[in-house]
């Protein structure tokens, strides 16, 4: 069997610890190519760069060639990686390992998830992997999980336009209770702006916020993670609210 | 009845022609507040600004106060408008009128649609309105459509976490064939990169692409617009692929 070709990227930037672990873990099952943002691009959502030129530079880590850095977003990296860096389409795209959870409503802001979305739009199976801590330095268990799910995706494939969004609780492996299939929750950030005055007496605002858990069912991504379970959610990009189509047809919208 | 409060924004920037038409059209049914990006923010997807401070400046158009400009993304404008500029939550958020279509897979890159998404996440009914031309200067019919749908939303409300994504063909009003409820299509851009060399002999890339129509059913957004019909798609942000949950549960994911 041909060795699978795996493209990896992230939104924390090519020098982040999570992508190094991902590289090491996935090297065990495939030929891994790294194409990742040169600098951190968190919360960029599905931004793409259309008004500026993109550049690619080769980057070393641990004294040896590691991958390609792009002055763009995670979605740019996937597009450019597939079209200009790899000779053939990869068999799998994996984004991560992100520092911080990508669950519930917050996945629409996620650069990590959008990179995987870009891949499935281009017809390539993909997953996003996140460690649910903003400070942890131990990505080893998340790397094992990435390996295991990558192996299964390469074996089974994924439905059209569907990616797997994986969130790994940031606890020691022996404290992990389960690995479960979940649905996307409704949790979001309760946001506020911190209003300040700069040294020139001009007003500015910082976005701040705290996470709100708005679900109770144990099969929801946020709850799984809270109960120390690895959460795997199949995500797709048909955003149509089918349940509402009939009702909407009754509205008085014509002249 | 209390006059409805309507927040409007866009991704083409506060000085774009489309938002001026939207302002005029919606002023007929409500008190309109404009909070929009200072400069164009197209293709930013659902980006939010977390690493830079946001500033607000008051902007005039036609010699009179028009609205508030923000050095951020469309989603930032909605957050900041609701939390720091308006005293009370608005009754409706409308984003547009965008120059260019926001249909099919491409809506996930859309700053216009993401602004409306931000509103519905915050619990406020919303719609995004786009004119399907990149060059037109006549937003008058799209303004009428925005007015009519806004009136219906204010009357009926919208389901939780659902917005209306409206695309208006760029043809004279008498050539419009219908106003129909649609679902999101699968069309996307066939992308390519234009590889160039700069004056310092360094390589750079421009993203280019052409739209691909991948649907045939007349009830799809792309097709409606092609047939000179106004397309109204109800969009929501539960991205779970429910059809795939059962199958995924059969995978061998546990140690």
Give a count of the beta strands of chain A, DSSP E runs of length 2 or more: 11
Instruction: Pick out the low-confidence regions of chain A.
Output: none
Number of domains of chain A: 1
Tally of separate helices of chain A: 6
How is the biggest beta sheet of chain A arranged?
A: 9 strands, mixed
What topology, given as strand order, has the largest sheet of chain A? 3-4-2-1-5-6-7-11-8
Q: Can you tell me the CATH topology of chain A?
A: Stationary-phase Survival Protein Sure Homolog, Chain: A
Which two protein chains have the largest interface (Cβ within 8 Å of the partner's Cβ), and how many residues from each?
A-B, 78 and 78 residues
Give the SSE string of chain A.
EHEEEHEHEHEEEEHEH
Distance between the termini of chain A: 62 Å
Strand content of chain A: 25-35%
Rg of chain A: 19 Å
The oligomeric status of these chains comes to homodimer
Report the CATH C-level class of chain A.
Alpha Beta
State the CATH superfamily name of chain A.
Survival protein SurE-like phosphatase/nucleotidase
Mean pLDDT of chain A: 92
Shape of chain A: globular
User: What structural category do the secondary elements of chain A indicate?
Assistant: alpha/beta
